[in-house]
Amino acid sequence: MAPAEPSQTQTSADAAPPPTAPHHPAGTALVVGALGVVFGDIGTSPLYALRETFLHGSGMAPTPEHVFGVLSMLFWAVTLTVTIKYVALIMRADNKGEGGVLALATLASRGLNGRAPKVRIGIIILAVIGLALFYGDAMITPAISVMSAVEGLSAVTPAFTPFVIPLALVILVGLFMLQARGTADVGRLFGPVMFVWFLVLGVLGAWQIAKNPVVLEAINPIHAYYLVTDQGFGIFWAFGSIVLAVTGAEALYADMGHFGRRPIRIGWFGIVMPGLLLNYFGQGALIIENPAIIHQVFFELVPNDYMIFLVVLSTLATVIASQAVITGVFSLTRQAIQLGYLPRMEIHHTSETAIGQIYIPRVNWLLMSCIIALVVGFGSSGSLAGAYGLAVTGAMLVDAALAMAVAILVWRWAWPLAAAVFGFLAIPDLAFFIANALKIPDGGWLPLIVAFLIYFTITTWRRGRKIVATELSEGSLPLKQFLERMERAPDRVAGTAVFLTADASHTPAAFLHNLKHNKVLHERIIILQVDTMDVPVVSDANRVEVERLGKGFHTVIAHYGFTEQPDIPEALRACRPHGIAYDEMETSFFLGRETLVPSQHSRLGRWRRDWFISLSHSASATKTFFRIPPNRAIELGNQIQI
């Protein structure tokens, strides 16, 4: 019986204890590196956020009163949502150095200590919803970012307008074709380019503010209050675009494992936040001076002679922002696979030293196809802005809910305090979510459909694998009971046989099939189970647990973190201190190959049954996913009705 899917195991003192959190010194190199990866998405928001607030059917006019109100809202949205909620609070919740929605869910589940199973189910559902919304956001971000930058060519001369979409497609296709090469070499350029980008943002904004310093009065929240009272419920249309200024905030937390929280915080407070806010206020000053430039306000920050240079720099910045999102998709997909949320897929490691640098071909080409369809289908960043925001704000609400659970269960806050703090910080998220829900007819339906399909896929896969595991275990015999009944041992042959299984305490189906048909046993039998722990990385000292059962039988439980790819030969070599010597040429690996047969009365239902069978057929082979020498692997079939 091959492992149906890596199982999520709670860390305990008698299992493999978690490693200590990685130490990330806040050196200059790490801060600059974080600029190139962590802040790409939120760093390109000045290209379109303020413009869309006045143009995308919000009812806002480029008058001084409305400009002051919008800038005030934008300032406090960045302060409350990004600075306080994510940078100051949520980044405290790290799962051994890793961040993201899965880390929050894992921490909250661990804090329950096995209690309140219904609460744990709710946490898992929130994690799945967060994953689904993340994928919806990841499709739209590269499309709207690159298109916004390339559209700057129209500001240089209208003659470039027909070439905007073709050029955006060329840039995006080229970006996805480079993914297989890895980001190690290109990544060295990302940080310096983004440092220049944020420096230029701040300088251009400060230049305009110096010419019209009265715009700084917008920091006073009274201007936001005046705008709300003036617009009434119509303010939600403006919220739908103001939220574009905080998209990417979740990346600060999700990418924490690559750099550590301190370099990210230094980068945010020292470079990114000042550059962004100066630029937004500079754009506001320019709008007050000349309302007619609202359509290309960002590129109007520079004289015409220098506009082409700003277009080139912004295009580089948006490509980097897209790269950051793509890398995040790869990383989160690997975590989801390891934790059993998605089927196994082929994963390429593009660096021998950096565990986070991976490439997943199937995800890469599927994401590229979806983004190309968005660029061609919507035709402009303004049209795509209607689809942007709903997935992001939904994910932010999920983060707030899970962070509140972590505060209560892990940080031991009193629940009224946790509810008050995160409830208050969730108010802007809720307002933004409602505002983006109003844009459903204008494109907001897109991330909802994507999120639903991902949610349907994840829940179908988890439910299907549970049914398969139940079917396999029902006919299996406890391994120790089998050994007790094995009175006369069959003929033994030299060598070692390794049987992969999802439960090392039971006799694998592949073992019984081999014994039935070949009527021999190897000299040494290893029943091997792979457990995916709820920590990113498991130390070498805690890699394996070995138990001698007698009669040449051993059970081995190999522990891997959710950011690691299981390597079976490596796990067997780790068994040497336990008296098991691994020789690849004398070892055979037996894997169960499950053939799923549609059942008339499936517990999954017809739609889920057919989709689950399709997912199972597309899943990578066990020997590929678990890094087993293909020339030493033997697959034994097993039919299961589903």
Structure description:
This protein is of the alpha/beta class. The chain has helices at residues 28-37, 40-43, 49-55, 64-89, 101-112, 117-150, 152-156, 164-177, 184-211, 222-231, 235-242, 249-254, 256-259, 261-289, 307-338, 361-378, 381-384, 390-409, 415-437, 445-474, 479-485, 509-518, 568-573, 606-618, 622-625; strands at residues 7-9, 348-349, 358-359, 491-501, 520-533, 544-550, 553-560, 587-597, 633-641. The protein is built from 25 helices and nine strands. The strands form two sheets. Strands 1, 4, 5, 6, 7, 8 and 9 form a seven-stranded mixed sheet that branches. Strands 2-3 form a two-stranded antiparallel sheet. Helix 5 runs parallel beside helix 18 (390-409), helix 6 packs across helix 8 and helix 6 packs antiparallel against helix 15 (307-338). It is elongated. The chain starts with 6 loop residues before the first strand and ends with a strand.
